[in-house]
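Q: Given only this backbone (434 positions), what sequence would you predict?
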């Protein structure tokens, strides 16, 4: 017979301890008392296990090498993020804002793999049927279970190729008195689902809600329980969706999957440049093409800038898709090192396509786009600006520069502007724009 007790759990780092309250001794954040399931005979069981036999350490050379066979999801961008496909028994938590496309992606995945158990705690089977009809899914090997009791859901596992739980925050067990979505319920339900997935070697996807701060709802320990944590992001007003691996025990965490939301669901993007580059003529002032690295894949994006005379005592600095503090730093370099009087002008910078640029490889492109708009003179056709800009105005080489330039040449950008051609930003402006 099981019973429960209260246990301190830090909501920031996941630290837990019985008989503690207040601030977390690990990170100093405030935690809360969480209902936790324990067994009456837990102390006796621990004593017996120590007497019967304890696990002994083994040497690394005696451990057999095993390579798990991957299960292809038949969705190229999802396979890329997972590291080549799913591993039997792998537990994946996919999180993102409401309406971003998590359920749509998982329903498409279930249709691709087949023989799937889809446990829905949020939507009725009728609502799922409406979505399936819209996506054109007519598979007869999908089983749907409308259930929020995790114990009933666990008993429904059989010999499926895939299991989906949508979502983990709706699941609950009667062994705990807390409401569904509470920290104790989320953690205990995740443990039980993980246990059955490992026992039967069934890949399991769990949908997770997000908080107002943009983090996964529930304790941080939930991210430690699962094997893989995927983050689905994108602007719901645009068709672009990005899938990132925040944690992955079976693959890399630097890969990014790119999807496009259409009427018939999420479609993997093969021609990435058609999203981030203008379809029309880019031979205008203030437009510069650069290359950013998403995982191991270089992406060409268009940096747009607009410089207009300001009548305000403090000119505007507006950045869309670029860190505004990085923009202010680059403006200071242009003012001090290049002699541009930008303190009298409003400066607007935008990254076309809705993607966010965070790496410093786009510094040179931002500087040249601002200078191009200031002089109202476009860069030569086929130009690619690539390089980090220092406070001295120097241009620095970036990671995987040759790979980025090679990809750009393949798409017709045969005039790279990098640290190898020009050493300083003021030289680039004088040589290209003056």
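A: Predicted residues:
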């Amino acid at each position: 017979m099981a019973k429960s007790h209260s246990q301190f759990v830090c909501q920031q780092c996941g630290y837990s301890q019985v008989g503690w309250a207040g601030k977390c001794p690990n990170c100093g954040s405030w935690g809360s008392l969480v209902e936790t399931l324990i067994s009456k005979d837990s102390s006796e069981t621990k004593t017996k296990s120590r007497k019967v036999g304890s696990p002994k350490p083994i040497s690394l050379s005696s451990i057999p090498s095993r390579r798990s066979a991957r299960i292809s999801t038949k969705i190229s961008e999802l396979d890329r993020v997972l590291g080549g496909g799913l591993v039997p028994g792998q537990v994946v938590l996919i999180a993102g804002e409401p309406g971003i496309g998590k359920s749509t992606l998982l329903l498409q995945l279930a249709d691709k793999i087949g023989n799937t158990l889809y446990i829905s705690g949020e939507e009725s089977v009728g609502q799922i049927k409406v979505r399936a009809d819209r996506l054109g899914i007519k598979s007869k090997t999908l089983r749907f279970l409308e259930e929020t009791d995790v114990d009933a859901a666990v008993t429904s596992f059989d010999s499926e190729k895939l299991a989906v739980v949508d979502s983990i925050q709706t699941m609950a067990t009667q062994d705990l008195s807390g409401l569904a979505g509470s920290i104790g319920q989320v953690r205990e339900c995740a443990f039980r689902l993980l246990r059955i997935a490992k026992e039967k070697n069934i890949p399991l996807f769990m949908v997770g809600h997000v908080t107002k701060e943009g983090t996964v709802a529930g304790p941080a320990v939930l991210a430690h329980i699962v094997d893989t944590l995927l983050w689905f992001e994108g602007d719901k007003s645009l068709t672009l969706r990005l899938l990132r691996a925040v944690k992955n025990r079976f693959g890399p965490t630097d890969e990014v999957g790119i999807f496009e939301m259409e009427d018939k669901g999420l479609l993997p993007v093969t021609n990435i440049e058609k999203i981030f580059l203008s379809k029309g003529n880019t031979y205008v002032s203030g437009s510069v093409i650069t290359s950013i690295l998403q995982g191991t894949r270089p992406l060409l994006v268009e940096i747009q800038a607009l410089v207009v005379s300001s009548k305000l005592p403090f000119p505007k600095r507006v950045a869309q898709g670029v860190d505004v503090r990085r923009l202010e730093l680059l403006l200071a370099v242009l003012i001090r090192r290049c002699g541009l009087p930008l303190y009298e002008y409003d400066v607007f910078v935008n990254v076309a396509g809705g993607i966010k640029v965070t790496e410093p490889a786009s510094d040179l492109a931002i500087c040249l786009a601002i200078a191009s708009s200031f002089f109202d003179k476009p860069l030569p056709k086929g130009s690619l600006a690539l390089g980090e800009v220092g406070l001295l105005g120097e241009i620095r080489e970036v990671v995987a520069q040759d790979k980025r330039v090679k990809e750009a040449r393949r798409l017709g950008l045969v005039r790279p502007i990098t640290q190898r051609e020009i050493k300083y930003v003021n030289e680039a402006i004088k040589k290209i724009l003056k």
